[in-house]
Amino acid sequence: MPIAERLISLSIGFRAARQVDMLFNEAVFHFIQAKHPQQWTKDEVAVWLRWCGEEYSIEAVPADKFDMNGKALCLLKRSDFMERVPKNGDLLYNALNKLVQKNSGAYDSSTTSGTPSLSYQNVTPSPSAFQIPQQFSSPDQTNGGLVLLPRSNAQTTAVYTTKVKPYVPILPHPANHITKQEILPVTTVPGILSPAPSPSDTGSGSDVDSCTEYDDRLACRNPMQPSQLNYMNPLRPTMATGSELVPFLRSKESDCRLLWEFIYQLLQNPYYKEYVCWEKLDDFVFRINNPTGLAQLWGHQKNRTNMTYEKLSRALRYYYRMNIIKKVSGKRLTYKFMQPPANIQKGQRGAKPHSRSHLLTTCKDEEVDDYDSEMRSDDTISSELSQTSIEGKPIKIEIPDSHDLSRRDSRDKLTRSMSYPGMRHLSSACHSTDMSDQPFDFTMTTLKRKEKSVDDSVSSAITCSQLSFPLPMDLNSPVSTNS
DNA sequence: GACCCGGAAGGGAA
DNA sequence: GTTCCCTTCCGGGT
C-alpha cells in the first residue's frame, strides 16, 4: 500500500484520539516536505489537503475538488483555488505556494502576494526544511494558530504560530517608552486582523523583506481567535483605536527570563520581524533589524526602562563564551545560535561573568581552558583530570579594617573579587565560618585543583581587587593582608 | 556615529 | 546565602 494511502487509513483510525491525531499530522508533515508538490500523486495531494485541514483547522476540503496529481495542482492559479474552495482557497494556495518555493530552492518573497509560478526544479529538499524548532512545543498547547496578516494588497499570508510556547511580552501602555517610530506602524481594518508591518516603515531601513525563510518555514497551523492574537502580538492595535496599541497583560506564560529565549520567541512570531528575523534558519542565523526597538522590547520584558541595544548586545556577548550565540563576523547586527535553541540545556547558561572574569585575571591560559571544559561538563569537574582536594581545610585570613564584613555588600564584593587558580568559583568554594569576627575565616568547602598545579597553587596568591595575600603552605595558618 | 568587544562591578531574582 | 543572568558603565577598536 502506498505510503499516502497508509497514512490516510491510519488517520481515520487515529482521529478518535487528538494526541494521536497530532502524531499523524506530524508524520504527514514530514512526508509532505520530502517531496516537491509537482511529484505528488493524486493520493498525496489528498494527503496534503487532509493535512491542511488538520493543520489549519479549516473545513475539510472535498477530495473531488482537487482530483488531480501534484503537477496539475501546481498549475492551478489562486483563482482556481478560490473557485474550488471559496472559503479557504487562498490559504491553500499560499500553503502550496510555500511548499513549492521551499522545494524549488528559489524563494521569492514577492510571490507571496502575487501570482507565483509554481515552477518545479529538481532539487533535493533541505533536510531541515519545515522543521519547526520544537523547544517549546507541548502536546497540550493549543493557543497557537493561524494568523492571517493582510498584506498591502489585502491578500493573506498564513503564519505559523502554534507549537511555540506563546510569547507574551510584558509591554506597557504605548505612551511609555516606545516611540511611535520604533513601533510597528499599524493601520487597522475593521474586521481584519492587524496588518503585517511594512518593511519600508522600519526606522532602521533594514531589508526586512529578505527575512523570507521565516514565513516560509513557519507554515500555517490552527486558526486563532482575534482575542488570542491580541494576546500574542503586543504591538497589535485594538480594532477600534486605530494606531493605538493595546496595553499588554502579564501572563504566567510570559516567562522569557533569558535573553536568548526571548529573542528566539520573537523569531517565532513573524509579527516581530521588524525587530528580529531569521537570516538563515537552517543555520539559526538571525538578524536584528531594529536594535533600538528590540532593546526596548527586552527592556519592557525585564522592566528595565533604560535598556539600550548597547546593553542588550553586552548580554548577547556573554553568550559567546557559553557557545549559545555568536556574532556572524563581518555582518552587522547578525548573530547565530550555535546550536538549535531547542537543544540549549537548562544547565547551559549564558553568563558566568564573575567567576570567569576573575579566573582570567589570575589563571594561566591553560587553566582558563580547563575552566571552560569544566563549565561545559555541566558544572562538574571533568573526571579525566587528576584532582586533589583540599576541601574542608580552613584558611584564616585577616581582613583589613577597611573591609566591613558585617556588611553583606562588602562580603559579596570581597568574595566575588577573589580568585584562585584552578578553582571554579571562589564564592562557592569559600564560606565564612564567622562573618563578624576577624580574622576572617574562610573554609574551603569545594575547592579542587588539578594535581599538576598543586605546588603552584599553594604558593600562589589569593587575589582580589583590593587585596593581595599569599595562600599559606599551612592552610590553617592565618595570613595577614597588607593592602 | 553606529556598531562591536570584553573587563569590571553590582542588582535582582530564584 | 549562593548562584545565575543580566545591567550598567567603561575604554577601546573598527
Automatic annotation (TrEMBL):
Location of the PNT domain: 19-103
GO biological process: cell differentiation
SUPFAM superfamilies, sorted: SAM/Pointed domain (SSF47769), Winged helix' DNA-binding domain (SSF46785)
Cellular compartment(s): Nucleus
Keyword set, alphabetical order: DNA-binding, Nucleus
Record region (Disordered): 105-124
Ranges where the ETS domain occurs: 257-338
Major subcellular location class: nucleus
InterPro entries recorded: Ets_dom (IPR000418), ETS_fam (IPR046328), Pointed_dom (IPR003118), SAM/pointed_sf (IPR013761), WH-like_DNA-bd_sf (IPR036388), WH_DNA-bd_sf (IPR036390)
SMART domains in the cross-refs: ETS, SAM_PNT
Gene Ontology cellular component annotations, sorted alphabetically: nucleus
Molecular function GO labels: DNA-binding transcription factor activity, RNA polymerase II-specific; sequence-specific DNA binding
Family membership noted in the UniProt record: Belongs to the ETS family.
PANTHER family: ETS (PTHR11849), ETS DNA-BINDING PROTEIN POKKURI (PTHR11849:SF201)
Official protein name in the record: Transcription factor ETV7-like isoform X5
Taxonomic path: Eukaryota, Metazoa, Spiralia, Lophotrochozoa, Mollusca
Gene responsible for this protein: LOC111134887
